[in-house]
Known about the structure:
This protein has 396 residues and is mostly helical. Helix content is 79%, strand content 0%.
Amino acid sequence: MITKTTKNLQFTSCLIASMSAFILLYMSQSLYGFDEVSVLVITFMSYIPMVFFGLHSGYWCDKYPYNQVNTICASLLVLAAFAYSLIFYFETELVRIVLFAIVSFLISTSSFIYSISISANIPRNYDKSNWMKINANLSFYRSGGVITGSLLGSFFATAEFIYYSFFLFLGASVLCFYSSVKSTEQTSVRPDIEKMNIKGLFLSSFKPIIKNRALILMIGHGSLSNLVTGVIQFSLYIFLTKTLEITPQLIGILLVFRQLGGLIASKFLSHFEISVNIKYQLTFVSLFNGVLWATLALLPVTEYVSISVGILFFIISANSLIFNLIMSTFRMSAVSSEEQGRSLSAIRFILFASFPIGTVIGYLLMEFFSLRLVFLFSGVLIALTSFLILNIKVNE
């Protein structure tokens, strides 16, 4: 059902994002030994595009052809690859930090717009009855890209092979560029949409959302969850290496397990429809996720701790995939095909704006509390946000 070029785009863009994220973390913390403030700045830069281009990206995806938007995204990845190569040629820490921030910004911008472009294009090319299956298939390739990227990242995250990672980065970026140019999906673009100021763009993007109370409550829940997830993501690598004493290379393998659950779940859901009351299913899935993150905080340091972390990552991934698929499909059915890009970007603008806030909170919490307490507190908060979904009336 999905074209080969879209599959390649989904897989390769996620591979680059996953591999680069792991390698940049390794280089900044283990290879070059940047302090926590520098790591915070680099991490923060990866969230800026989600806010800065949050609304505009949806407007671009509604107005311009699918392959044009994707080609621009691929060009950003190629540019990021060359900026990445410069890191090895400068020994000044400040210059390296700036280059890290630039690479992080470019990759995040490309990945964010790619995700909106691909998702917004589904209702324009496929029948509504197939949306859940198509979303599941796309998630399969997304998870496959992240898994491959994590494996490659763990392989190249050594002093011996790190310099060769540039060639893989550049090759994958060029492949993305080629797939973007060759995209052939038909799109119901709206070239008649006039250029809008911020106010007009804001109203145009949020208009289809504010009419639906269920969407508003889902977005509210997602924002709270993402804020807490921002805390977790910032401190996860440090928690695994310093608290649980897991090596960077083994973390790469564990990140594979974190996506493997989503890979299997997406393949399963691509053949089945979810028919139970989604309100209670979403509540359970969100509650369960919080419990799983809290459990991670309580793991003792033993020789088998990496196995326990891998199992938890696997379940968290499958659980999150189910939640995201249901929410994504529901959002598609609530918005017209001509407004898919703007509505999706508006939702992600709100959802992802909470990530950088969570990152800063995570840094502050780490200054005053132990990492175990931070993770335990985060898991409890995610579990508590699940009860917000109980107020959703899905039939609205």
